[in-house]
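Q: Here's a chain of 123 amino acids. Please give me its 3D structure as tokens.
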Amino acid sequence: MSARIVLVLAATGLVPIALSYGLMPGSLIPVLLEFPVEGTNQTHVFRAIMGLYLANALFWLAAASKPELQRPALWVLFLFMSGLAVGRMLSILIDGVPNGLLLFYLAAEIAFAALAAVSLRKV
């Protein structure tokens, strides 16, 4: 799979997750993740996460059309996804197994980290 396709797929997959975290955290997080979001501080954290996710997705999309940015974008993709996956695996070891949606996110993060690593060898 080409670096361009990996970057576009990662960005496309991340945007709905970002929006689910930050667009309406008080309404969506309780449904998706099964806990309430209460107060300004919690809403603030989820909207900040949305901003971080959207900024990465925007960089990956920009890099998909600019070959000179593809290598740095693949590194960011690899570090972003592997960082999330390692954090989730640590949480599973310490806290227990989360719901199915979060396990799906873990699988996707591992897959995209692997795709980024393979793509880095090609560019």
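Q: Can you summarize the key feature?
A: The helical segments are 3-22, 25-33, 39-64, 67-95, 100-122.
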